Amino acid sequence: MLEALGLVEDSEIVVLRVHEPGHATAPIDVGLAELRSRLEVGGRTPDVRVRHGHAAEEILAEAETHSYDLVVVGAQGRRGLTRFRLGSTASRLARHLPTSLLACRRVPVAVERILLCTSGETPSLATLRFGSSLAVRAGARVTLLHVMSQVALTWASPSDDLADTAETAIARGTREGLHLKHGLEVLAQAGLRHPPTARLRHGLVVDEVLAEIRQGDHQLLTIGAHRPPEASAAYAPYLDDVADRLLTHAPCSVLIVRAPTGGARA
After folding, report:
1. Most confident among 45-49, 117-121, 145-149, 224-228 (mean pLDDT)
2. CATH value at residue 137
3. How do residues 149-202 score in pLDDT, each as one tens digit?
4. Res. 82: pLDDT tops 60
């Protein structure tokens, strides 16, 4: 995925090998050698580090000890205990990592379509900027998605809002329309190769995001971190559930963006 997103040439890459007790090491060593060879660019060889223990715990320990911009993991297991273990690892990382997480699934040769989800009254600048920076590197098209509940929150909520498309919401200047308009402006300033488009869907967040991924044949889903600083304690579990379900069920790679705190490695 690093190659598909154009991150190999000018990124400092560290490859982490976690040796879990009771697991065969030969297949991991073969895969590690192949990965290291692929990531050798311009005479630079990726730094390889080895840790012993549970995958999630050791990845977290490595990320907390050093400054990274992005942690990249595979998410290819789909059956039995393997699927559970990978899902559990990705979920723990998404909750506790101090940096952004990219869970890779069905990696294409080149990333051409990115779905960038945004929620709340003000678009997350960290999510928009990180997602757009990857799109610029990959030359990908970006769709900005906001999912609106099908149920009005108050009796005063205009019923017309529940039938809005992104275009009509922007034209009417609704709360969601202004939200999407601002997001498009931020994306446009990033220097994307293709003009970004906006989508407004109505319904349950996970269902609508998954439907949009399949309808648009998107290859990368970008969402905000599990627990943004402004989230209340009561709202945080809902965010956890949404991210967990998208990590498990999205038919493509998932990028969970956390606001950067410095560093220059992946």
Report:
1. 145-149
2. 3.40.50.620
3. 755 444 455 556 677 899 999 999 988 898 899 999 999 999 999 999 999 999
4. no
Residue 176 lies in a domain: yes
Q: Is residue 79 part of a domain?
A: no
Q: What share of the chain is helix, strand, coil (3-state, %, to 5)?
A: 40, 20, 40
Number of residues in the chain: 266
Residue 239 to residue 127: CA distance in whole angstroms:
15
Do residues 201 and 147 lie in contact, with contact meaning Cβ atoms separated by under 8 Å?
A: yes
Task: Choose between 155 and 43: higher pLDDT.
Answer: 43
Answer yes or no: is 178 within a domain.
yes
- Per-residue buried b or exposed e for 71-95, using 16+ beta carbons within 10 Å of the residue's own CB: bbbebeeeeeeeeeebbebbbbbbb
Number of domains in the chain: 1
Domain that holds residue 195: 113-218
H or E stretch at 224: strand 220-224
Task: Decide if 173 is inside a domain.
Answer: yes
Q: Comparing C-alpha atoms, which of 254, 219, 255, 250 is closest to residue 111?
A: 219
